[in-house]
Amino acid sequence: MPSDRLKEALLQIRAWRKADRERDLSADIESLLSQPWPAMDAGTLRGELIGELHLRGNHARAEALLLAEVEREPAEPFRSLSLAEHYHYYDVNLQRALVHVATAIAKARTDGKFMVQALGAQARIAIELKNWPLVEA
Fold this sequence. Notes:
Layout: H1 4-19, H2 26-33, H3 39-55, H4 59-72, H5 77-90, H6 94-111, H7 115-129, H8 132-136
Helix pairs in contact: 2-3, 3-4, 4-5, 5-6, 5-7, 6-7
């Protein structure tokens, strides 16, 4: 459950976005992250920062943050899935995307979390690659 403070921070980010859609909010979100946060709240804000970096085309920085998230929570399938989608949609490298989605699927097999999402990502990537055996797997 997000804290009230996180809810306020997210409302502020959305207000900034609504006021000026062209404004790069990366520095603002980083400023929020420089404050002490509970681990889950900080993770949510890092996700907001990664989304902002993608929106602004700063793919190298988004990739670095995603890699750090995978290191921070190595068993969490969502982190590998997010990295796979980064390579699928932003810093397009479909082969790397497949490697990370396979990792996400392997991690999801342990507890079932994000399995459907990981399999869906794998299918979308495989279709783009015309890797029909993987689509049918």
